[in-house]
């Protein structure tokens, strides 16, 4: 049943932690038209389809076949699918559609969804035509000037300026169909508990929920069977902890623990049984690892762990927010590791789940950050809360994710020092995130003006090494740092929220602009510090990293940035992912050992 389309469009199974053998990939050619004033309401209103688009690439991108970056409030998609009704349920799924979507099947409204970065679905079984010729129509509304919707780095001006990039409208992640039985496994969620050497599983049953249902769970590490259990389904769900055999000795334990150095995954098979007959089966995976904060240290698997991260915008020149394909996502993970980083901060983007899959499989830590809205209104906050909740729900089970970041640099909450409502928004999102996930650290607002937070992140783009030493060197008392230092002209912590011993990390620095060749279509480069040649660029990176790595105050760092992104030419890599200086040279300085860990005796 799997129909992948062209090789370039194959993104792998789009929901990697709940995979089915039978699915249809709907990436490829769709009929398309712009609706500049968002005047059309139903498929019947669309009288002509003058364009053809390649999904999942947004119409602003070259890869879509359209490449129109003008202002359009809405757009429409349509395609035909050969799909005969059968003795099962048919689910239509969308990875992400920016920003508000309405979906029809054969003229019947099937789904509505708001939020440009999170998935949604529709059970379209009862809408299918008997002859097997089905028509799917999608309307995507995305007002380019609306600053109250979470939009991340998408520019609201016609030409990208400063640190903002071309807009992404409409479908930008995989669209697919899966056929499921009338009673099926709808959701799986994993929670590792390292203290008891246990894996928590929450499974939800969809469709027709009967009394005599049971769920069989099998966990394996390679050929080694770790557990095989069966649980009664009660009220449509199973919620259990599976205790694994604890080897006791660290050397043996470490073989089963997940880390960037040893990304051990546990393969899972779930089977749903009804009246003694297996009715559904899915594949998944999980991992045994812990990620938390203890006093002034970040802890991975119960041990202090220095974070060496790079800021990653997640854009590509020809496809924008959408990845060119699964190989490109894997390559980005491999390149980050090749440069000596053990983690990335995905900046202002809820990344494609296939990226998280490769980070899980290859071993790369991820900070997930909510794309910002840029006005503070009730509408903006409600939209942010809804979409952030959906993002946490989607990505909770990925072992690579270790930190959640609801706000960045006070974007969308610009008056934190003086307006109580702005503070409440940050504190509310912090506590909501901690409520939805008690297993990870949360940074309420990264960069400055910290209040409710587990880690204090500082953004400082000063390239003068002596200034860095004076601000953060060993002679600086922590109290003086937070009372007197103003990177970016902002206070580091808000009144009433003094430093309480949390880890301190330099979560944005560098931003060195060096561009050996001009990117096509980019009129002017932008950066914090400009360098004229590759050798000078390499030396500055080496000196800056050596200073930061050996600054004992910092429990981790995040360098800006992974790759050039349109006019922001401050990447270690060019936009096409070719390195500006040899990867081995970058890796040598990135992965150098530090003198000692903060708080260590």
> What is the number of helices?
9
- Quaternary status of these chains? single chain
Number of strands: 34
So, the CATH homologous superfamily of the largest domain? Answer: Glycosidases
Give the DSSP E fraction (strand runs of 2 or more residues). Answer: 25-35%
Helix percentage range: 10-25%
Major sheet: size, sense and barrel closure?
A: 8 strands, parallel
Rg estimate, integer Å: 24 Å
The CATH topology label of the largest domain is: TIM Barrel
Distance between the termini: 60 Å
User: pLDDT average, as an integer?
Assistant: 92
Number of folding domains? 3
CATH class annotation of the largest domain: Alpha Beta
Question: Are there runs of 5+ residues with pLDDT below 50, and where?
Answer: 2-10, 595-601
Q: Categorize the overall geometry.
A: globular
Question: SS-based structural class?
Answer: alpha/beta
> How are the strands ordered across the major sheet?
28-26-25-24-23-34-31-30
Please state the second-level CATH architecture of the largest domain: Alpha-Beta Barrel
GO molecular function: hydrolase activity
Protein name: Glycoside hydrolase family 2
Domain Glycoside hydrolase family 2 immunoglobulin-like beta-sandwich: 183-289
Family: Belongs to the glycosyl hydrolase 2 family.
